[in-house]
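Input.
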Amino acid sequence: MRNRALLALVMVAAAIFVFGVAGLIVSGRQEPVSDFVAAPRGTPAPAGPQTLQLRPDSSPEPSPASSPEGSPDETAAAYFQAWVKSDYDAMRELVDDPPDDFADQHREFEDAALSRSLRIMVGNLVRTGDDTAEIPFTQERDEQDAGKWRFDSSLHLAVRDLTWKVVWTPAVLHPEIQPGGSLVRTEPDAGPLRPVTREGREFPQNSGAEAYLDNLMAQGVAPTNGVAVGWALEVDNPGMPAKTVLSYKPEKRPVGVRTTIDYAVQAAAARALDGVQRAAIVAVRPSTGEVLAVADRLGGKGAFDLKYPPGSTFKTITAAALLNNGLSPDSPVDCPAVYQIPFHRSIHNYKDENHGTVTLRQAFALSCNTTFARLTIERLNGDTLVDQARAFGFRAEGDSGDTWTCGSLQRPEIPDALAEDSFGQGTVEATPLCMALVAAAVESGEWRQARPLADEAPQGELRQSVPLPSNVAEGLRSLMSAVTIDGTAAGSELPQGVAGKTGTAEDGQGGQDHAWFIGYRGDLAFAVFVEHGGTGRSAAVPIAARFLKAL
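Output.
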């Protein structure tokens, strides 16, 4: 019986030993047991203790005589808790022989990462010796655009002066970083961005807007050094090529800097000028002043910069002054072949046409020089005409300030000069852009300065819009409609709904006349100019018809 009792006792003891060892082995598995979470970037981290709870490992316990202060898990917990709070001073106190730039290395890492939040998930502590230990951990960072970024590292600890300390290297920040290395954020360049249409499309081939796009680039509207497309985080170690550890590329690359140009309007304007050597079309939106198209065969930015005598298209401005001074579209006026300014020169109609007594509307539609010269001499004066021109974007000689202008004239001092200016000769000059804005003002009832081509361009101080009196705007619309119904542009291939004004202007150098046609249709106003093209009806109106019919 004694032998049986002894055998039973031995078996119980053996069972206790086996299960005890098995328990130690299970506790040594690497399973996350705690994590530390930082608040979103720019906000305070959560307060309160966060305890790192680790199961005992299978390493032998140090003897009581050499027991260090604290434990590796307590040091690790304090370190991680300070990390998520960005308390680099507290972290430094827990590190054995920290580098002088310890805090700076952390800050530079965070400045490169730009993480919106940080979470540290900690695994089980592993004793690697009597006085050393290691804790695996995972950083989970929320990166703008790229989402979650996770990577594994290890925290090494050792006993130093009977105290558990962190043995720190830059690999704690990221396992790829070596001493002297750092995390760097790069932003790849998309290259120079060309201006594009308002829809984001490339401009049509041979659009005639090339000089304007180059000018936008030169003015810095389009960044000539390119723009950043996405980003990358790279580890830059001394003597080694940079290694990308995280990157982001947007699904859609920017195609360019948007302008106010409309692709269809620009294409129609460009094709309308095919085969024409020295000409321009400018189209604007009357309701906003946005430039919708600029097709230029004048060279450079001629449609915006070069001034020419506008000829009879300027009668639109003279008519506005007359309507402002008591006349109406139905007022009876004379349109003789020749008008003799008292004691001065004589004014002739084109081909000395004599239309007798007509309405102001008919005189405008037939483009009677004699009518407008006589009415200006009898009813207006130099100041009245200049003031009216200013309201349409013209500048008079002697005007001060930086007011944006697109046309110019001198104050006429004698009747001859006043008469010549009244029908767009003499000292009057305007760009094609200027006359497109005149037509736009008639359609909308308000003169607006042309908006810069690029929406992204600094707008500067735009001149306030100038409203036209309601009777003037309505009267001018009646006059311009008559031109295409039974006037100098009637019987052409212009589409229905177009109102406008033809112009034939002497170039002052004895060459062939310049041809003009300005007008509008709906919320689109335009000017067609052909240098030395002849008459407005024969040269400019057909181009306008091709342009408008293509829309």
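The mean pLDDT is 87.
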